[in-house]
Hints:
By secondary structure, the chain is an alpha+beta fold. It has three domains: 7-173, Beta-Lactamase, CATH 3.30.450; 194-349, Beta-Lactamase (2-Layer Sandwich), CATH 3.30.450.40; 367-586, 4-Layer Sandwich (Phosphatase 2c, domain 1). 42% of the residues lie in helices and 24% in strands. It is built from 16 helices and 21 strands. It has helices at residues 7-26, 30-45, 74-77, 88-95, 104-110, 149-193, 198-209, 238-249, 260-266, 277-283, 287-295, 329-366, 418-437, 441-455, 540-554, 559-570, and strands at 49-55, 61-68, 80-82, 99-102, 121-129, 132-141, 216-223, 226-234, 270-272, 300-308, 311-320, 377-384, 394-400, 406-413, 461-469, 474-480, 486-488, 494-496, 515-518, 524-528, 579-586. The strands form four sheets. The chain has a six-stranded antiparallel beta sheet, with helices on both faces. A hairpin with a 5-residue loop joins strand 1 and strand 2. It is rod-shaped and about 125 Å long.
Amino acid sequence: MIGPDGPTALSERLTRLARVTGELVDADTVEGVCKAVVTHGAEAVGADVASMTLLGDDRRTVRLMALSGGLAGDEETWRTFPLSVRTPSAEAIRTGTRLVVTGPQAITRRFADMPDRGAETVVALPLSAAGSVIGAIGLVFAHARHLEDAEIELLDILASACAQSVGRIIAQEDAGRQTAKLAFLAEAATELASSLDYQVTLTNVARLAVPTFADWCAIDVVDDGRLRRLAVAHVDPAKVELAHRLAEQYPPDPEGPHGAWQVMRTGRSELIPEITDEMLTAGAVDEEHAAIARALHLRSAVTVPLVARDRVLGVITWVTAESERHFTLDDLVLAEQLAKRAAVSLDNAELHSQTLAAAVELQRAVLPDALAASPRWELGHHYSPAGRTEVGGDFYDVVELDDGRLVMFIGDVMGRGVGAAAAMAQVRAAVRAYAALDPRPALVMARLDAMFEHYGSEQLVTLLYLVADPHTDTVTIANAGHPPPVLLRSDGSAHQLASADGPPLGVGAPTRAEEHVGFRAGDAIIAFTDGLIERRSEDITDGQDRLTTAGVALAGLPLADLVPTLVGQVSDPSRDDDVAVLAARRLV
């Protein structure tokens, strides 16, 4: 060995540099590349400070990826900085050329933004991949350092290997992220289409976004001119409460230049690639506000509007924190795609809620809350809607005529929603009107058939209509495709009355048959919709038999007790269908 800069020392440095270059080939993360460069690379050439920086996606900012040496606080100070600053790495990125500057005065004059710590030599190596500069390696020597031509050549090779490794890893990570994002978008779209309960749906979407797309996600909707936090999800569940506390204790300023309110006002998305401490300080109301914000370790944010039919319904905010990822323009595109789907889902849910409310009100107006008491007739009824989110088409009513006869009917409009509710209201009103003109079952059915034929209807309607006459001790029945009623005799026997069955209303029935059955004091008749007796993987006759058996066992109960007990014993609680029951017992 001939001195510190002799041939042996140079050979050792070259060997170390070659070894570092080999490490880069095997690195599978950008962090691994950075560590190899700033630690082993710095040791190989004897640098006192080494850094590696990458150009941001906006091509205007530079991000410090790794640093060895330097002073405490340097890493935070230079975490991100403008490309325009006068530092060795920034100049190397701007120019795409290698820099070697020796002498404190020359360094100070050329790099005015670089801290003056008496450096004797600085080296900056641009990192070029796919014809574009993506970053730089910076080396600082506290003593004057003469780089041999072989060292410079090997440093260039090191920079090239570093750039290729970073480019390869970023491409792989981008491909993986793109695949994950597409999968996330598909899963979110499926989730959004799965339910009309927008609160549950959007809450699930917020959870899906974490950690695939962001470290935490918040969804706010417009409610009476205010932003209401609908959902929040965080990669660290313990910080969800902190996020809630921040939103409640320090709600966003409606007039603020950034954030949810600004996005809501303008309808334009906002991308903040880097959330700096200066931003947190400027946006804080007080020290506690700033402390809570810092505790969330905010790094980058994307806020996009939920827009449907030219209305801003709310905003979704995604934030990175612990992962230290930074959102890019590609992320913004993905966020806007998801927001469009979420906005449509939210708008559809609002429309559905309004439609459902109208249908519910219409159904409430049609179904009687209570049946009028009568000395001649004991009445009982039950209605339980399905667990689904739309109103069904079951309807029923009872009318006692002035002469003591009892008209009762029950029907089912196939389908759900406002259409079914409207058809239900129309048919019920028509039945009552025709019964008032002449209550005879065959005549009422004939008039209903004529009405359907004349006006037309896309709804399929079944109807059971009967008139009980205490003067003749009979009940007369006409049936348009509805499940037949059950007659409970005062002696405890039970019978299904199916002989008057016919097709549903409006499908063509030249003559409706009537069935006349004896109906004396103490007898009861039970009418119902198919939701009472139908069960999966079971023949309908099994349900009818189950109803008849239960009717016999319960025949002695008052109808107010018999009807709900019958429903509990006969119906299938797991079946998603409306159940309506109407019962009448002759008292005298």
